[in-house]
Structures are given as structure tokens and as C-alpha cells.
Design goal:
The protein is of the alpha+beta class. The chain has three helices and eight strands; from the N terminus they run H-H-H-E-E-E-E-E-E-E-E. Helices cover about 45% and strands about 20% of the residues.
């Protein structure tokens, strides 16, 4: 602010040509012109040093600089890091629930496909539990196919008694229980063969 006031005082002390000076002698006019020419470098310095300075109301020049300061970049990076950390921990807490829902849909799909095969093939279809994460599906006298939950849904366990679909698609009511660290899902099979996730 002191620098700006000092420069303004310098300009205030320059001899300006009033309108009534046209009657003066040619020597006085020449002296005025020389004074203005000598003051031109100081005017250029004043404009250059106060470019975009909000403390100088006498000279308002639009600042056309573009880009980001180091402080703005650091603040943006901190915000991104905080949001990424929150999202990461939220995603980790959702993973078990996602796996449990996926395992329940897989088992339900296999049960529906087994019922449809029993009607299509006019043969009994048996779904038998092998351990707490795998089961077999046998259509008639064919070789059973093995289904395992661990590769796609690790940490998810399964518990049920054997399900047998008759050639008409009916069965005895059953409840299959799937669980992991996020909770429990139950799959119920009605006597008509209808499969539902609870």
C-alpha cells in the first residue's frame, strides 16, 4: 500500500497542461511535452508493477492468469484422499453382503433349473449337500454335476438336507440356509416346487 501511495504522489507532482495554457509561449509548451515524455517510463513501470493488484483502485486491470496454485492442488489431493479412504472402507464392509446375495442367487438358480429339468426329462432330480460349501445335482441316472460356492463366494457356507424334485416338479418342503459374516439368507422350497429367497 505504501508503494502504491508513493507512486501516486509522484504522478501528482508531475506538471499537467491545463486548458488555458494554449496562450503560453512555445517554450513553456515544449517544457510540458518534455516533462510528459520523461514521465512515460515511470508510468510504464507503475502499470507493470501493479498488474492485477487489488490494492490499487486507480488502476483496474483484469488478471488473465490461468492455472492452479500449489495450495489449491494440495487441498484437492487431500479431499480426494479422504473420499477414497471412506469409499474403500465402505466397500470392504459391503463385500460379505454382496457375496451372500450372490451365493443365494446361484443356489436358487440351480434349484429352479433342477425343477425345470425334472419336468423336461420326466425324471427325478436330486440336489445333495456334499459339505458346507458345495452340493451335487443329479438328473436321472446321469453323472452328478458339482457346484461349489467357495471360488466365487468365499466365506459363505450352506446347510440343507437333500432336495428331490419328482418328474412333475414337486418336492417336499425344504429350507436351505446360507450364511457368512454379514448375516443369513434362507431359501425356501414349497411343495409345488416354487423356490424363493427370504
Amino acid at each position: 500500500m505504501l508503494r502504491c501511495d508513493f507512486k501516486l504522489r509522484l504522478f501528482a507532482e508531475l506538471p499537467f497542461l491545463p486548458p488555458s495554457s494554449f496562450g503560453r509561449k512555445m517554450e513553456d509548451i515544449n517544457a510540458q511535452i518534455v516533462a510528459y515524455v520523461n514521465a512515460l517510463p515511470l508510468l510504464i513501470f507503475f502499470i507493470a508493477s501493479n498488474y492485477g493488484d487489488p490494492m490499487t483502485p486507480a488502476l483496474k486491470i483484469i488478471n488473465t492468469k490461468i492455472g492452479f496454485t500449489l495450495l489449491e492442488v494440495i487441498v484437492a489431493m487431500v479431499i480426494i484422499a479422504i473420499l477414497s479412504t471412506i469409499s474403500f472402507f465402505n466397500y470392504r464392509s459391503w463385500i460379505p453382503g454382496i457375496r451372500l446375495n450372490g451365493a443365494a442367487r446361484q443356489v436358487m438358480g440351480d434349484l429352479v433349473a433342477a425343477r425345470m429339468s425334472s419336468v423336461k426329462e420326466n425324471a427325478s432330480v436330486v440336489i445333495m449337500q456334499l459339505n458346507n460349501h458345495s452340493y451335487s445335482v443329479s438328473v436321472g441316472n446321469r453323472t452328478p454335476s458339482i457346484r461349489d460356492l467357495q471360488p466365487d463366494y468365499p466365506g459363505t457356507t450352506l446347510n440343507f438336507t437333500s432336495v428331490i424334485f419328482s418328474s412333475r416338479g414337486t418336492t417336499s418342503p425344504r429350507t436351505l440356509i446360507l450364511q457368512n459374516s454379514s448375516g443369513i439368507k434362507k431359501i425356501t422350497i414349497a411343495i409345488t416346487g416354487r423356490v424363493k429367497i427370504n
